[in-house]
Each structure stands twice: as structure tokens, then as C-alpha cells.
Specification:
It contains twelve helices and eight strands. By secondary structure, the chain is of the alpha/beta class. It has a single domain, classed as TIM Barrel, CATH 3.20.20.70. It has an eight-stranded parallel β-sheet. Helix 6 runs parallel beside helix 7. The model has no long low-confidence stretch (mean pLDDT about 95).
């Protein structure tokens, strides 16, 4: 079984929102300000234009602007990974090549949207996209949202593709983590993709977390992760219990609106989304605000954070083709 590309990706990679103005135009400056806060909190990478980044609601030129803005702020300190969410394999390949030319350090590839592909079609899509680029790829598995399930057996078959370096596991079944480890060992870096399974995933040996609600609470999110990874269970659990009602907001259909509202409540951005999404209204807005405001009011005092030397992102060597 070949080794993957040398991508030392692990720890917290937040799935960054795309900030808009009230008229739904891009607010790149607000997006960059939010990224600066995330970097200051200690994140290890940035995932732009995933589901939380409202990828499918953006025009191709806008996607390029968002990733370029992230690269400008990151300055090579952490890898910038772009979501690849297209309706055809050809479009996904074009976008992957564009992101490599732009300077992104990696991709997070989803199955082709709209069509519910079978296993053979799904693996062909992933293999074809991988051949179009030398960048390292996070394979995003979220059958609940996107209907296509990439099973551990399928990942075992895909293990011969060198630039598949990681899996974002969002099936909602933490047993998948152990099944993957048993079947393919450490072939892939495994990332938790469901906020309210983060502690359970750490216990089972996850490598990283593509976080959502941590966008609104970056310091708490990062400190919880570090404590959990260090085996300081009691301290991590105390934060997790406070955090869990907020983390539950990562899984409903309107998770983008919920998380963006939380970001607005803590002063790190705005709630504006792009249609067909609409901002929350009525009783739903009142209910979600109640959860967010209760979380803000009960924010825990964090244990002291040990100092560590600053590091820069290790260059990723593209696959030669």
C-alpha cells in the first residue's frame, strides 16, 4: 500500500464561513478579519468553501476570490484547503487545477452533487479528480447530507491513490473510525466532521477536527481540542459539556444559518447568507438565539495554555505526473 503525499495535516482545521454583506455580495474583508482571529487561536489549517462556506451558492470567480483572500491572510503559516463541490467530474477537475494554480495547499473533495452515484461511479469521480492535480486531498464523506456513502471498504480500494491524504468522516457513526483504522491502518489522516462527536472521536484515535461552531468560539474550541488530545479528560469534558448544546447546532439542515448567527452574536462576523438560504426568523430564530446566548453567558474559564514555538506550514510536494 503506497504512502500518501507528505501532508502533516492534523488538529483543528475550521470550515470557514464566507462572509456576505446584507445585499449578499462578498465581504472579503470580513472573511479575512475572521481568519485572523482563527489563526490567532492556534488552528492548524483552514478549509475554505466547504458546506459552511456556501460553496454551491458562489460563482466560479467568487470562489477564486475567497481562496485568494484566505491565502493572503494565512501567508503560509497554515495550509489553505479549498472545498471542491461541483455537479460534474469535469467541473471538479477544472476547479482542482485552478486551485493548484492559485496556490492552495490542498483540496477537500466531495462527491458530485445532485446525482446519487453508486460505489463504482463515486470512486471513479474521486480517482479522476485526483489525477487532475498534484495537491493533497481530504475525501469528504457525509452520506446524511449528500446521499453518497464512501464506506471503509471503498477507502481501502482508493488507498492506492497517493494524493488522497485524509478523510473527513461525517457519517455520524463513530464506529467508522475504528473500522477505518482496522482496515487501512494509518494510511489516511482521519478528521472528525461532526462537531458533537469530537470528544468521542478523539477517544477513538482521530487525527484532526474540521470544526464548525468553533468559528464562533475559537479559543474554547482550540483549548478543548488540546486538552482532549493530551488525555486531560476531566478538563476536556468540562468544556465539552458546556460546548455540546452549541455543537448540536452543527448538524441540522440550517447549520450554516445557526453558526453564522453565533458568529454574529460574538462579534466575529455577520449572519448574512446567500439565497436560497435566508436568515432565521420568528420562533426558530428566538430558539437558536436562546441556545447561543446561554452558551455565551456560561463561557468557561479556560485552563492556562502552554507556550509553544511558532511554526510555518511544511511545503507540500505535488505528485509528479
Amino acid at each position: 500500500m503506497p504512502a500518501p503525499i507528505d501532508c502533516s495535516w492534523r488538529d483543528v482545521f475550521p470550515a470557514v464561513t464566507t462572509q456576505f454583506r446584507k445585499d449578499q455580495s462578498l465581504d472579503l474583508e470580513a472573511t479575512q478579519r475572521h481568519i485572523e482571529v482563527l489563526l490567532k487561536s492556534g488552528v492548524s489549517g483552514l478549509v475554505m468553501l466547504g458546506s459552511l462556506g456556501e460553496n454551491l451558492a458562489l460563482e466560479p470567480a467568487e470562489k477564486h476570490q475567497v481562496v485568494a483572500a484566505a491565502l493572503e491572510v494565512a501567508k503560509g503559516k497554515v495550509p489553505v484547503v479549498s472545498g471542491v463541490i461541483e455537479t460534474s467530474t469535469a467541473a471538479a477537475c477544472r476547479y482542482a487545477r485552478d486551485m493548484e494554480a492559485l496556490g492552495a495547499q490542498g483540496l477537500m473533495v466531495l462527491p458530485a452533487m445532485v446525482y446519487r452515484a453508486d460505489a463504482r461511479e463515486t470512486m471513479t469521480h474521486y480517482r479522476t479528480v485526483a489525477k487532475s492535480t498534484g495537491l493533497g486531498i481530504i475525501c469528504y464523506n457525509n452520506p446524511l447530507a449528500y446521499t453518497v456513502d464512501i464506506t471503509p471498504a471503498m477507502f481501502a480500494q482508493l488507498a492506492d491513490v497517493p494524493n488522497f491524504v485524509a478523510i473527513k468522516e461525517s457519517s455520524g457513526d463513530v464506529r467508522r473510525i475504528t473500522d477505518l483504522r482496522n482496515l487501512v491502518g494509518d494510511r489516511y489522516k482521519l478528521f472528525c466532521g461532526v462537531d458533537d462527536l469530537a470528544l468521542e472521536s478523539v477517544t477513538l484515535g482521530i487525527d484532526g477536527w474540521i470544526a464548525g461552531m468553533g468559528l464562533a468560539f475559537p479559543e474554547e474550541n482550540q483549548r478543548f481540542w488540546e486538552l482532549a488530545l493530551a488525555g486531560k479528560h476531566a478538563e476536556a469534558l468540562a468544556i465539552y459539556r458546556w460546548f455540546t448544546p452549541l455543537l448540536h447546532l452543527d448538524t441540522p439542515v440550517k447549520f450554516v444559518q445557526y453558526i453564522k448567527l453565533a458568529i454574529q452574536c460574538v462579534g466575529l462576523g455577520s449572519e448574512w447568507v446567500r439565497a436560497p438560504r435566508l436568515t432565521l426568523a420568528g420562533e426558530e430564530r428566538k430558539r437558536i438565539l436562546g441556545i447561543i446566548e446561554a452558551g455565551i453567558a456560561a463561557r468557561p474559564q479556560l485552563p492556562p495554555k502552554p507556550r509553544k514555538p511558532a511554526t510555518s506550514v511544511k511545503p507540500v510536494k505535488p505528485v509528479k505526473r
